[in-house]
Design brief:
By secondary structure, the chain is mainly alpha-helical. The chain contains 12 helices and 7 strands. Helix 5 crosses helix 9, helix 6 crosses helix 7 and helix 6 packs across helix 8. The longest helix is centred in the N-terminal third of the chain and has 24 residues.
């Protein structure tokens, strides 16, 4: 009887913790609140910016911030049109370009904390190529993929009953799980702890990213040549970006399938 009560309580907790991904409608598990995820993101982002060297190339920095702000506006409009602006509560958007020509990478933490590395700019080539990357990364955050992965990790490591207490009583472990879950590749204790996004999460980020970049006035069709360039880049060794963002023929075919929907949102500026 006790086992049944515990099982029922656990089932109810997991059911209550389910959220819905925008656009795709997929149901996901999110045991960590948005405010807690955003708070963890602020801490991790500050740490990253403290140890990283920010780019001093004014033109490139301006481009990253311009693209980011346009996609931010598109995301906010999408949620506003859906009557779901509360989903972005607590977002404090930041867009920074980190000087590291060997790092072919970019990411977005919960709450809109974005970092782009200079090593990816030769592959993005221009503003539209950069919009593919930033739209995709911002989509991961908006879809709460980091929270989903952190929930899975905490559930596996701590169990349902320990999740809430871990957030307040074991901040070091929580921050470690957070860093691996959000896909920043941040070094912790000498190790890079990084979980790969699942195929469903990657597909969703592609899907949402195409729509957000289109709403921002960037041609979503340019996602195909970008991913082709990224795939070609991987032939000389896997870039950090591809360690958690697989680029292959299947992905490109999926993007081609999604383009007609994304093009409906596109108006050139």
């Amino acid at each position: 009887m006790l086992f049944k009560k515990v099982a029922t309580a656990t089932s109810l907790l997991l059911l209550a913790a389910c959220t819905t991904v925008p656009i795709t409608g997929r149901r996901t598990l999110n045991l960590v609140s948005d405010s807690e995820m955003n708070s963890l993101a602020v801490t991790q982002y500050k740490e990253t910016l403290t140890t990283a060297k920010l780019s001093t190339n004014s033109a490139d920095v301006a481009m990253v911030r311009r693209v980011g702000q346009r996609i931010q506006a598109a995301v906010e409009k999408y949620f506003r049109d859906q009557g779901q602006s509360d989903q972005l509560a607590g977002y404090q958007w930041e867009f920074n370009l980190i000087q590291d020509d060997k790092m072919v990478n970019a990411w977005c933490m919960p709450g809109g904390k974005v970092a782009v590395y200079t090593g990816i700019l030769p592959i993005t080539r221009d503003e539209t190529g950069l919009a593919v990357v930033m739209g995709h990364e911002i989509a991961h955050a908006v879809a709460k993929h980091g929270s989903e992965r952190m929930s899975d990790q905490m559930l596996a490591q701590l169990g349902t009953s320990a999740v809430s207490t871990a957030l307040t009583k074991n901040p070091a472990a929580t921050q470690s799980i957070f860093a691996s879950a959000v896909g920043t590749g941040t070094q912790l204790g000498g190790q890079v702890l990084l979980l790969k996004f699942s195929r469903n999460q990657e597909s969703e980020a592609d899907h949402l990213g195409l729509i957000f970049m289109a709403m921002a006035g960037y041609n979503p069709a340019q996602a195909i040549p970008f991913w082709q360039r990224m795939a070609a880049q991987s032939q000389g060794g896997t870039p950090e970006f591809l360690s958690s963002h697989p680029a292959d023929a299947t992905r490109i075919a999926d993007i081609e399938r999604l383009l007609p929907e994304a093009q409906k949102y596109y108006k050139a500026r």
